[in-house]
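We close this part of the discussion by returning to an individual protein. Part of our work consisted of pairing the sequence of a single chain with a tokenised description of its backbone. What the numbers capture is local backbone geometry rather than side-chain detail. The amino acid sequence and the backbone structure tokens for this protein are reproduced below.
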Amino acid sequence: MKNISLLNQMLEERYLNCQKHPTSELYIYNYSAKAQYDRLWNEVTLGCRGLILD
């Protein structure tokens, strides 16, 4: 993920969902229903379709 500031902005504005793995330091990112309804597609929302980061 190149644009961390945009990632954080999309999380704050609830265009992304983030879940932490229960036992590992892994996080999964997905675009939210709000992104679909608002049709907000950018490099981050398009890239966060089951994106796993550590």
In short: The chain is about 35% helix and 30% strand.
